[in-house]
Structure formats: structure tokens, C-alpha cells
């Protein structure tokens, strides 16, 4: 690392962190407390009250909940706690990107542009889901260690990788298989890149040390959740996320295959949970396998191809240069002899990481937040390619160089800036918080259920957020093709106090005409029927 260059880029880093800190603490007060975040807060409160059996969760990683506990214990509100954690995650991520940038050959100017471009990207991360944000910050530090050319010189590097890998797993279960495959193969690359027996011994030592610590820490959590659910597992997420887009599913996206949106009401998994999604391990569902039948295998192939196409669209949404960057990197490694290939592991490592990390989601479902790490890698890989281009005689002209830098910068910041502006104009989380304040005047509290929309699941998402703010429990939305008599039976079975009708009034079932609508029609697009009081 060039000390002079690192000192100058450090100043840029500190300025960016300062700007991010101000924006993070001042923007979108309620937008960061997303639906999934509410679930983590609920789990954290169980740890705080000593309800460890229900706090242990095979679907949601425990680390974010653990990080919330000290804030809640100190009496800090859930909104401020998430905001402060996002501040910390952002500072860590910027620092990690700065460290990781020195594993890529790039000029000081390009490194500064990469850091500047990362500001709106990371600010966008902070507005979506904190568990994915935390995962990115951890994995960036892991890559910063394992990508070092002298990684094998100290056994502490292997131990650090194992520790960070276990933290990544405790954040999100996807990191468990990713780390095992990635750490093993990256060490293989280091091994093959060095012909010295002494260095190869060090690589083996780091590999063993890293895996021992990783399996020791992650194994404790695996045994904990396996004991709770009665079978050996590292996560119950597969049973939901892989089964969801099964052969019988109509429509697109993960939600169309999740049974909570079609099968009717679900009781929350424990007495202090406010919605079944706090632990989807208990969802009803139809397990399937690609090997079950010829039709299932064809469905799996179609799903995989669809997800590949979706993944490429997501990469393109990160930057219009994304696919060009990937193609150029492939060209840089393709056709090389093994000796040449492993002598360029600074090119091979990020390409392999991007493909492996993103490729795992091809098996079930893609969302942009799932592959945020790839967004960061593409930014750094693009910076490396720019530095390579600028060594060519064509780019000796500062005008040409600056023009390309401007295009590169705009391509990476346009989408996140647009998202940040749109989120400022409208956020479901902000809307539902405001609505919850209004509903408190009607004393709406208890067991909730709602109607469903055939073309989306807004009633589900909105009502479960309301249940959180109103200290109530949400049992879900009306089952697909439920008759009125079936609906009434479900309402009585689960002792539903309030039934929410979102949308047009003509969707109100006839059976509700006997009950009181508590808002008196004062809230556009919403009717709430109190089922304990007949007209």
C-alpha cells in the first residue's frame, strides 16, 4: 500500500463518512424500520426479557437481534436503535471498501472516485434491510483479508477469516455455504499461485485455522437451532425460500409461492410474536425437488434460467457498465494457462467471488439486496479496469479521462440517488406509522386479519406493520378462493377482533354487514370492522 496515496484517500474517506453520518441520522426517520426489521426488534425484546426459547430462531440470523439488545436495554427507541446501527454499518462498510480498494490495482484518482460513488450506494443500503447491510459490511472486511497477496504470511489472517465468516453466518444463513466454498477455493488459489513449499504450508495452516474457528463458532448456533427444531440444520430458511417458487406457483417473485399469502390465517408462532413471519419455520408448505419428476426438473431449469436473466437485470441496475465489467474480467482470465491464471489472482479472486456469491441465488430467487456485495465488487472491479485503460496512450488526454470518469461515476450513482429521492417522497413504512397514530384514537388493538388482493400483497404487508405499531397480533389475510362461510369459520377459530379491508368498498364481504365499521369511513381506502360488536 502506497503510504502517500493511502493518506490522501483516507481524507476522502473521512469526508464521505462525515457526509453519510449526517444524512443517515437526518433522513427518512421511519423508513429504516422496515417490516423485516420489526421482526428483529421483536426477537431482540425476547432476549431482553429472558424468553430465550422463543428468541432462538432458525430462519432469522441472531446477530442483528443481539446488536439491538444493548440499545433497547438502554431505553433507546427501536427507530433510533436501527438508525444508529445503520450508522455503524455504514462507517464499517466505507472503511472496508477503502481497505478492499487497495487489493485492486487502481490510481489514487480512480480510488477517490470509487469512494465518492459508494456514498449514495451505501446510503441506499441503509434505507432497505439492515441484515443485508450488516452482511455486506462483514464480508467486505473478510475479502479485504483473504484477497491480500501476503494473506498466508500470518496465521491470524486465517483466524480472522474464520471469525468473520462465522459472523456472516450469524447474520444470514446464506453465508454458511458461501463461506465454506469461497474460503476453501480462495485458499486453493493462494496455494497454486505460490510454488514455494514454505508458503504453501502457511496457506494450509491458515485454511485449517480459519475453518476450525468458523465451525467452532457457527457450530454452537447450529446445535442450538437443531435442538429447538428437532433435526440437524444450519437454517430453516431453505424450507421456505426454496419451496416457495415451486412448480404449482403462479405469478412471479418469491411472495407468490409463500403459503401465508394464499392459504388463509396463521397463528403467530409464540405468545409474544406479532406475526407468523417472525418464525416462518412453522409455515405449512409443499416441499419439492427437481428430481421428483420430469415436470419438476423442467420447472427447475426454467426457474434457473429466469433467475439468471433476473440477476443480469439486477447487475445492470447497479450500473450500465456492470455487464461490460464482467465480460472484460472474463476475457482477462479466459484462455490463460494455469500458471498465468493463478499469477493474476487479483483479477481471478473478485470475478470468482462475484459469480459464486450471486450464483447461489440462481437456485431459488433474486432480489437486488441479496447481491449488494456484488454491487460493491463491480464498483471496485470497474475502478481497476479504468486504471488499466488510463495507462493507454488514447487516455493521455485529461479531457478523455475525465469524461470516462464522469460516465463511470454517474452510472453507479444514478439508480441509488433516484431510489433515495423516491423513498423520501413515499415510504410504506412511514405511511403505516402515520396511520397507526391515527388509529389509536379508535382504540384498535387485538387480533387482526385482513382481506387479500389477487394482484399483490399490500394488505398483508400493511396490516402486519400496523400490528407492530398497535401492539397487536396479525393472523394473515383471507385465503385464496375462500367462501364467506370459510372466512367466518377462520375468523371465529382465531378469535379475530378486527378485520381490515384495504381497497375498494365493493370488496367488503356480506357477512361483515352485521358488524361495526369503526372508522366511520374517515380513512380513504381502508375499512376496519370490529367483530365483537354487531350493529
Give me the secondary-structure topology:
Elements: H1 3-26, H2 35-49, H3 52-55, H4 63-73, H5 78-101, H6 108-125, H7 130-146, H8 155-171, H9 175-193, H10 197-229, H11 237-241, H12 294-318, H13 322-333, H14 338-342, H15 345-359, H16 372-389, H17 398-425, H18 428-439, E1 447-450, H19 458-469, E2 473-477, H20 484-493, E3 498-502, E4 515-517, E5 526-534
Parallel strand pairs: 1-2, 1-3
Antiparallel strand pairs: 3-5, 4-5
Helix pairs in contact: 1-5, 1-6, 2-4, 4-5, 5-6, 5-7, 6-16, 6-17, 7-8, 8-9, 8-10, 9-10, 9-15, 13-16, 15-16, 18-19
Brief rundown of the structure:
Helix content is 61%, strand content 5%.
Indicate the low-confidence ranges by residue numbers. none
Major sheet: 5 strands, mixed
Enumerate how many helices there are, as a single number: 20
Approximate helicity band? 55-70%
- End-to-end C-alpha gap: 76 Å
According to CATH, what is the topology of the domain at 428-534? D-Maltodextrin-Binding Protein, domain 2
| Approximate strand percentage | under 5%
Amino acid at each position: 500500500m502506497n503510504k502517500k496515496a493511502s493518506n490522501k484517500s483516507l481524507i476522502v474517506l473521512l469526508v464521505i463518512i462525515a457526509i453519510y453520518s449526517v444524512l443517515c441520522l437526518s433522513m427518512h426517520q421511519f423508513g429504516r424500520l422496515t417490516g423485516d426489521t420489526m421482526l428483529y426488534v421483536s426477537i431482540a425484546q425476547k432476549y431482553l426479557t429472558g424468553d430465550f426459547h422463543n428468541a432462538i430462531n432458525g430462519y432469522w440470523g441472531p446477530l442483528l437481534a443481539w446488536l439491538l439488545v444493548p440499545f433497547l436495554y438502554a431505553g433507546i427507541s427501536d427507530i433510533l436503535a436501527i438508525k444508529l446501527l445503520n450508522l455503524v454499518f455504514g462507517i464499517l462498510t466505507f472503511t472496508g471498501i477503502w481497505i478492499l480498494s487497495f487489493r485492486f490495482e487502481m490510481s489514487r484518482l480512480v480510488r477517490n472516485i470509487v469512494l465518492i460513488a459508494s456514498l449514495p450506494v451505501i446510503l441506499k443500503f441503509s434505507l432497505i434491510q439492515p441484515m443485508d447491510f450488516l452482511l455486506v459490511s462483514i464480508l467486505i472486511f473478510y475479502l479485504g483479508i483473504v484477497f491480500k497477496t501476503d494473506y498466508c504470511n500470518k496465521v491470524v489472517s486465517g483466524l480472522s477469516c474464520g471469525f468473520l465468516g462465522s459472523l456472516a453466518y450469524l447474520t444470514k444463513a446464506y453465508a454458511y455455504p458461501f463461506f465454506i466454498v469461497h474460503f476453501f477455493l480462495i485458499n486453493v488459489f493462494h496455494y497454486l499461485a505460490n510454488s514455494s513449499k514454505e508458503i504453501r504450508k502457511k496457506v494450509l495452516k491458515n485454511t485449517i485455522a480459519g475453518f476450525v474457528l468458523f465451525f467452532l463458532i457457527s457450530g454452537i448456533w447450529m446445535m442450538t437451532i437443531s435442538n429447538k427444531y428437532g433435526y440437524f440444520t444450519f437454517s430453516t430458511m431453505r424450507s421456505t425460500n426454496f419451496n416457495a417458487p415451486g412448480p404449482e406457483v403462479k405469478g412471479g417473485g418469491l411472495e407468490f409461492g409463500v403459503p401465508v399469502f394464499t392459504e388463509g390465517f396463521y397463528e403467530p408462532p409464540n405468545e409474544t410474536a406479532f406475526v407468523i413471519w417472525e418464525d416462518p419455520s412453522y409455515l405449512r408448505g409443499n416441499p419439492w425437488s427437481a428430481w421428483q419428476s420430469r415436470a419438476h426438473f423442467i420447472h427447475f431449469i426454467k426457474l434457473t434460467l429466469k433467475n439468471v436473466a433476473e440477476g443480469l437485470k439486477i447487475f445492470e441496475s447497479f450500473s450500465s457498465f456492470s455487464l461490460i465489467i464482467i465480460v472484460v474480467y472474463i476475457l482477462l482470465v479466459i484462455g490463460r494457462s494455469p500458471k498465468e491464471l493463478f499469477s493474476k489472482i487479483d483479477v481471478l479472486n473478485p470475478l470468482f467471488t462475484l459469480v459464486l456469491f450471486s450464483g447461489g441465488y440462481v437456485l431459488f430467487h433474486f432480489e437486488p439486496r441479496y447481491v449488494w456485495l456484488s454491487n460493491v465488487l463491480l464498483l471496485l472491479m470497474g475502478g481497476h479496469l479504468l486504471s488499466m485503460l488510463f495507462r493507454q496512450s488514447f487516455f493521455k488526454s485529461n479531457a478523455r479521462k475525465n469524461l470516462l470518469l464522469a460516465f463511470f461515476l454517474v452510472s453507479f450513482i444514478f439508480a441509488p440517488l433516484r431510489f433515495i429521492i423516491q423513498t423520501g417522497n413515499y415510504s410504506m413504512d412511514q405511511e403505516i406509522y402515520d396511520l397507526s397514530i391515527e388509529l389509536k384514537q379508535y382504540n384498535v388493538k387485538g387480533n387482526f386479519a385482513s382481506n387479500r388482493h389477487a394482484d399483490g400483497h399490500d394488505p398483508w404487508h400493511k396490516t402486519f406493520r400496523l400490528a407492530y405499531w398497535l401492539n397487536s397480533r396479525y393472523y394473515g389475510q383471507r385465503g385464496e378462493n375462500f367462501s364467506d362461510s370459510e372466512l367466518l369459520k377462520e375468523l371465529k377459530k382465531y378469535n379475530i377482533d378486527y378485520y381490515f379491508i384495504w381497497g375498494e368498498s365493493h370488496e367488503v364481504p356480506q357477512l361483515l354487514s352485521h358488524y361495526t365499521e369503526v372508522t366511520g369511513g374517515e380513512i380513504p381506502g381502508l375499512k376496519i370492522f370490529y367483530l365483537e360488536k354487531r350493529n
